Amino acid sequence: MDQTLAIIKPDAVGSGNAGKIIAHLENSGFSIKAIRLAVLNREQAGDFYSVHEGKPFYKGLVDFMTSGPVMPMVLEADAAVEKLRGVIGATDPAEAAEGTVRNLYAESKGRNAIHASDSDENAQVEIGFFFSPNEC
Ligand code: UDP
Ligand code: MG
After folding, report:
1. Is the CB of 110 under 6 A from ligand 1?
2. Ligand 1: centre distance to CA 134 (Å)
3. For the chain, how many structural domains are there in total?
4. Residue 49 structural domain
5. Angstrom distance (rounded) from CA 130 to CA 94
6. What is the pTM of this model?
7. Which residues does residue 74 pair with via DSSP β-bridges, in sequence order?
């Protein structure tokens, strides 16, 4: 079984959609191996998204990801990374396929409800950002 990292973002936790999103992920065939509620500081959010440093949306992304609690979780399924990217949909909810998490719950391209790792290599790094090996 493969693992990936998802984060329910502050917009979705704040609007009370976290439970529905978790149910959506479980109903899509993922099992939750670890989960917590966390509040990120600017250094943590900046590190997590350091691949985007220098891009025009970077500061707004750090502002957003530190604006309230998030829910990082380790999800397990066959081909988990690719499968979760399909289940969450495109970055911009206007382009996200019908029935995807972002189609259902995202507000905008910035406030888009959920993060998902984009490769197996990044998934391992991102899981390590929030969880220790004995937790998942
Ligand atoms: N983002 C944004 N504006 C953009 C592109 C990205 O605010 O033009 C934010 C958005 O929250 C996105 C995150 O930065 O989820 C990371 O961007 P990425 O391109 O990695 O999208 P993702 O992998 O989340 O679909
Ligand atoms: Mg990404």
Report:
1. yes
2. 30
3. 1
4. 2-135
5. 30
6. 0.98
7. 5, 34
